[in-house]
Amino acid sequence: MAVQGEAFAPSDGNRLNFGLVKGAVWLRFVVEAGSGCHEPVFLKLGNPFGNRVSVFRRVQGEGWTLEASPLDPVTGAGQLQIRQAMVPVNPLPDHAAEYLIRVAGPGPVLAAPTIVSGRGLADEVGDRTLLGGLLAGGIVSLVAYCAVLARLTRLRGLWAYSASALALALFYGIASGVFDRALLWLLPAGQDPFGAVQRVSGFAVAIAALFHWFFVRGLLAADAASWRKPWHAALLFGWLALAISLPFAATQAIALLSVAVTIAALVAVAAEIAAALRRAHPLARATAVAFGSLAVAATGFVAMYLGLLPWWPALIHATALGVWAEAILLSVAVGSQVRDLRGERQRLAERTQELSRLSQRDALTGLGNRRAYDRTVPETLDRCRRAGAAVSLLVVDIDHFKEVNDRHGHGFGDQVIQALSATVTCSIRTSDFAFRYGGEEFVLLLPGLAMARALEVAERVRSGMRDSRRAAPDGSQPVVSVSVGVAQMQPGDTAETLFARADAALYRAKAAGRDRVELETGGAGGAGAGPSGARFPA
């Protein structure tokens, strides 16, 4: 039986929802015991959400006695937690006992009166402990998941989503009674637990809504400069005021401020999503659906909280279910974004690598350019010096190249350069390096080769170039020769000093008549006289 006001009315079930109540609600129970009833049983009210709960008992032929007061967690008559009024009911066999339970507001009043045995009560405590453990594990998993996503995607706002999920989990844990024991343990002696529930619940909801706004802003890449707008500043100020006033302000003031901040943040979230939809942001639709699922779940819980919907156990867990539904939907969307970002990064890395390669390649010959030379030669010299290996460097220059361009044109000159590039490539190993140093001058770096074998390479280049033929525009096949200077790395050499000695050897080859290989010691590698045909003067 239940009453609100003056008259009692029969109840159709054990799920009672009176909505917001300013005064008090009285619940009347008659408990009868059969002749075989010997096990202790409890009358459990369950989740009344009231500010004050008082339990009165009357046995046949006796008056009413107060069984428990709302602020005594454990009394001689029974146990009363924040939202769990559990009173031992042990009438004599074949007797009945009558109970009146007064649940006072202001606030919502929901109740699920049941009779449970001591064993059933222990099982329920175990179930609630298990639920709390699952909730804690889910929170840790969600935060870890957001951390991994934040690391992989660099998406802004994922840490804010973790904070929002934590705040919603706190609210859910308090609303469902999972955190009751912890809250009682944390409260100072004499502190009103019901007021603490309302304060922390309101604060958790406001924080969740505010961090949800931060998350959506970061996810949908809103303009950072918009933080200076008065609307955003007002939200932040409201949150700070709520945080500062939590320990000091009246419960009703906290509730009003929490509602204001929550509504403002949710409106801001909806505005951010609407703006992202107008911009055709790739995550806007998924975010709208995900946020909508959470909003529907939270709306169902609030409607039940206000008495607009009957008390349905699933609605107690609607907030947590909404959080996980939103997390799953966002996971799909962000996972797709992760794949797109990784593909884009892979393409960008490949493009960057290609541009880096092209920036160190000569466009005409495909050999390394001066930039590649400046990077490769010092590294190679240091590596060979540490390994105790020899290194030789060749400087190759086309003889009378200016006259080739003047007589046959620059197009033929480009062909000559390409022919020298092909000859050089065929004359060296895959572990060697060839560079077009500038104009008609080439440099060959030969790691692991001492002077004698470097001389063989230089001679192959010189003779191969002289023996090659290509038709000039006038139909002739002029002989084009090269001169080569060779130097080997000495202790204390740098890239500059090694090149300087090879370059000096090249100039001696030019002075000695060209079409020659000259060593840094001054020894000649031989002057080659080309076959019959046109030849530029030495």
UniProtKB/TrEMBL annotation:
Q: What class of enzyme is it?
A: transferase
Question: What Pfam families does the database record attribute to this sequence?
Answer: 7TMR-DISM_7TM (PF07695), 7TMR-DISMED2 (PF07696), GGDEF (PF00990)
**Could you tell me which SMART domains the record lists for this protein?**
GGDEF
SUPFAM superfamilies xref list? Nucleotide cyclase
Name recorded for this polypeptide:
diguanylate cyclase
**The reaction(s) this protein catalyses:** 2 GTP = 3',3'-c-di-GMP + 2 diphosphate
Does the keyword field hold Glycoprotein?
no
- One GO biological process term: negative regulation of bacterial-type flagellum-dependent cell motility
